Write the structure tokens for this entry.
Amino acid sequence: MKLEEQLKNTLRLKHFSLRTEESYVGWYRRFVLWHGKRHPAEMGAAEVEAFLTHLAVNRGLAAVSQNQALNALVFLYKQVLGIELEGINARRAKHTKRMPVVLTQEEAGELLKGVRGDAGLVCKLLYGCGLRVAEALALRVKDVDLRGGMLTVRSGKGDKDRVVTLPKTLQQPLSEHRARIEQIHRQDRAEGLQGVALPHAFEVKHPAAAESWEWFWMFPAPSPSLDPRSGIHRRHHLHDINISRELARASKMAAIMKRVTAHSLRHSFATHLILRGVDIRSIQTLLGHVDVRTTEIYTQLAKAMRGEITSPLDDL
């Protein structure tokens, strides 16, 4: 078996996401190509160090990307080749601290008034619940409790579950949306389409769940496609490019002069909660942050939006 296939299989065995798999495989390919297609088993820490230094010095990569490359190569050597990499002292990329893009409450209102369709409903969930886009798209029918007014995020970042309150204004639109996608589910079953993908080994334990209504995607794609991992022709969930395009269209209509992304809605959710007086620990739990220091950045943004610190120019 080729080393790349071994890497993919190991990543899947350890339940890494498809996005992480694509990233790690990409870094493996770049590493091998940069070293003249030498096999990684013939190289070691010195070659990894030289590659990482090249990324920082010649490519000007950000620290986050360089760390991702390091993690990918450490995983390759330790988990696939069984080799411990020690003594890596590469030239590290400079860490930069960027402030997230946050909408004002008025901007958020104008933006979300203009979003349309299933992608627009996802956008409202991102702001209304503070979800990551991958978390929203991976929702199943069973995860949205309309009667209880709750939404359960399964296997979020760090493979952790959490529960968030469902905005009351979205309960009716989500109820109508669910009635529409139930027709899609029935159509898929009538046409004998393969059931949806299930997490980890659940498909082996409960194969019938793939065709059940409870496990159907809350935001299914308009048409079936080829599963990139299994090669099965089935219906996947909505692609995140649909969300990006809808946000770009709606922000242009609302004349918002900021770069609005799906994550901007999550940042705005947290900042606006602080403006309402919600404590930082509660927001940390809602966002699924491991460290409260990650959440504290929104306190700084909220202070600026409140205008707590005024300029001396205003006193003249």
